[in-house]
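Re: heme C structure - here you go.
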Amino acid sequence: MRSLRACLAALACSLLAAGCATVGGVLTSRGESIARAQCSGCHAIGAVGESRSPNAPPLRRIGRQYAKTSLAHELEAVSEVGHYAMPPTSLSPDEIDDLVDYIQHIAAAPTL
Ligand code: HEC
């Protein structure tokens, strides 16, 4: 039992170190904080919920529309030229990777 606890504690620490924590059963990540900071003004960024801007599809729906590579290309385009009412954002390749992971995560979430 003791070793199981120690093992779980070590696991929790390594998850935190990797920038991940579980909140309300949903995996949060750097991708989520980017989405929260830069996309949530218009898009719903959770596994549930409506977008603030009625024209902006929830990110989870975008996640279901695009395969992983095309989603990354799409986000590069969004980052370079902006889209619709959204000004260009400066997303680094790492941030795009994180966003792609997050968007695919919420798109696959069972709570839909
Ligand atoms: C100022 C509002 C606004 C912000 C902020 C915003 N978007 Fe959007 N986005 C929109 C709207 C509106 C649409 C849908 C336009 C349409 O389809 O007519 C859209 C569509 C998209 C699409 C789909 C494009 C397509 O053609 O399928 C992607 C991908 C996307 N947004 C990604 C993002 C990401 C990632 C962020 C954060 C980095 C973000 N958006 C922030 C307004 C916004």
